[in-house]
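Assemble and predict.
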Amino acid sequence: MSNYIERFSTSERVLHWIVTASFFTLLLSGLGLYSRLFNGYFTFFGGGQNAILIHKMCGVVFFFSSLYMYLNHKKDMSTFDTDDKEWVTKRGGYLSRDSAHFNIGKYNPGQKLFAIYVAASTSVLGVTGVFIWMPTSFPRWLVQASLLTHGLMFVASIMFVIVHVYLATIGNPGTLDSMLYGDVKRGWAKKHHPKWYKETSGDNP
Amino acid sequence: MADTINQTTRKGFLVDTSRCIGCRSCQVACKQWNKLEADKTANKGTFENPRDLTPALYNRIKFIEKETSGEMSWLFFNERCMHCGDAGCMKVCPSPGALYRTKEGIVAYNKEKCISCKYCVSACPFNIPRYGADDKVSKCHLCMDRISGGMTPACAKACPTETLKYGTRSELIAKAKAAKKVLYGEDDLNGLGVVYALEGPPEQYGLPATPSIPLSIFLWKDVIKPLGILGFWGSIGAMLLHYVTIGPKKIEEDDEGKGGSHE
């Protein structure tokens, strides 16, 4: 019996990395627009005008790929059970060294909340982005509110992404495999997602 | 970003609206000097023409119809870039040198450096910047090419009634005050480059009583930006701190063993 179990399919992984690539391109091309402090980042794109063009194109890619990713997992991500409540009460065991065990399905509530946040912020960033894209076609108050909201959601998003990257890499060794090769070790699955492991492998840990 | 302005040598206009006869010589002279095309307009039953600033119209006379005891009278108002001392457009502009302050203290622009983001449209307290077919900012630049050579701006030169007076801003203000004029824009936004002596409350002219940079723009530039930078480094710091204090959730040998040995 293989020591590995599949967590994410090839199409799920490719989609995730399309979202990732467009996110970071949006970040780099948008920094110079966010503040003159980051004007140097325009150089990566050959000037501000090109950065705006790339920001718009990547915005479209990110909007649709990110929303599609959420809709693909909507059922898993938007339902919480009693084991999830236990996880939330104890903060997933992340605030203590004591080993904690939670009977978690394929996704823990932190992952679910992150997915919901990403879907919401993708929608907001996308819609406000359209107003900022064509500011002279919309009322000034709407564009002003959009500039504010776009900046606020960007800041929140980059903070969430930092936490996401930490938890998916060094914070939880073995997790990254699921997004690279798609397979995780059985031991990892039993520790982090025992209910999912049981359902998928029929194995009783 | 702090932008320095020398209030004693700063140049500007003093617009005494009580002297204006609505001849629009300022509009025409501006078009002529700046080689701006005529805009096609439609008659909407008012003498005001055009009805708004355009990419090819840097200043215009607003005709405000006022009725007092059955008598109609006009208020004339010269609408243009105010060359704010604290300019919203300069605050948001992401492209250094696209909107900049000259040594005369005016807000000038360089179309070649404009990246067409149009943030200045949203940040202007007076809704002045316009974008034309070239997709670049355009507005009154106070005839920067004339004043740098010691000449009077085209509009003020053409004004037959001395409504538009160009000169050292502090001297113009002192003279107007000596003549007991009530001034608009003396101190707002670190002093407007265009100061008005109005014949009534500013609202009558469609002006904000106390002009300011839009709240959304202030929040973005002065609150979210610094907090965002703090939040970015704070998040990285928090993750590193978590790693060295509580540490990662390692898979114990025990978990591995059970997984591997199970038949």
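Residues 140-168 of chain A form the longest helix (29 residues).
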